[in-house]
Every structure is written in structure tokens, then in C-alpha cells.
What we know:
By secondary structure, this protein is α+β, with helices and mostly antiparallel strands. It is built from 8 helices and 5 strands; from the N terminus they run ααααβαββααββα. β2 (100-108) and β3 form a beta hairpin. The longest helix has 23 residues, at 2-24. The termini are far apart.
Amino acid sequence: xxxxxxxxxxxxxxxxxxxxxxxxGGSSSSAAPSSVSTAEVTxxxxxxxxxxxxxxxxxxGTSALDGIYDALLEQDPISNxxxxxxxxxxxxxxxxxxxxxSYKGVKSNDNGDAGLVLVIEAADGKAQDIADALYTYxxxxxxxxxxxxxxxxxxxxxxxxxxxxxxxxxxxxxASNECTADLDSAVDNALA
Length: 192
């Protein structure tokens, strides 16, 4: 009886191990479905922080953010728009979930076009921290585009990004390659 129990346990462990290993693999052509929520994509270590950002995502689209966002997007039309998601806020921009009340933004999904419009409602007293993190993101993007001669226009656009805040509203705008507007004035007007 003991031998059967040991064999049954071994078979169960082997089957479970095979199932886990199968789940870890996958072909390079497979892609996550677009309907996967950010909470499902995050790692367990960051799930609490990410879930806070995901919860805040439901608050996006407030009239204050929409008005600023729409005004900036009108001045800086972004080609092939890619909506900025909670995962981008946390991992791309390195913004802690507790610093972000809500946000709204898009960036260009075209190679070599760094265009971006991002409006963030910061938690009380966190606007400067968010602006500093966005400045770090800007410098990282300048370095990235600097590696590719064919992306010289995108690098220039990122170097000239406008990052500003008023009260708890923080804005970052990177000109799309087709943008001809004065983004400094556009940001000043939007935050007025």
C-alpha cells in the first residue's frame, strides 16, 4: 500500500510539473489577446500596486482630464494611436500607483514617431514627483532613439518634450512627427 501511495504521488507530481512547464513555454508567434486586463498581466510582487492603478483607471475621463487631453491632442495629433494603459503608467513611466489618481493618454504606435499626449491627476503633493519621473522617462527615450540614425526626428521630438504641472495636474507632450503647433503655448493654455 505504501508503494502505491508513493507511485501515485510521484505520478501526480510529474503531471503537475509537466503542466507547469507547458504553461511557461509558448511559441514566439503567440500574442496575448487584447482583452487581457492589466491585472492579469502583472506579476504577483507588483499586483497590489498595479491593482491600485487599475482601480484608478475607472476614474479616467473626468471632465477636467478630458478637456486638457482633447485640447492637447488637437494641437498634437498622434498618428496610429496606442492608448496608454495602467501597465504603461507603472512600468514605462515608473509612476507608483499611489501617486496617480487618474490619467489619460495616447502615444504613437509608429516606428520612429515618439508622439505622446499624457495628462495625469496626481495625488496630493505628488505632482513634482510625477514630473520628475516623466523627465527620467524623457531622458531614457532620448537615449533609445539616439541609437538609431533613422529615428533622428523622433529623438529631436523627445528632446523637446514639454513636461509641466499646475496644482495636481501633470502634462507631458511629445510632438508627433507631423505636429506643427507650438506645444509650449498649447500646454500653457490647457493648464490655464
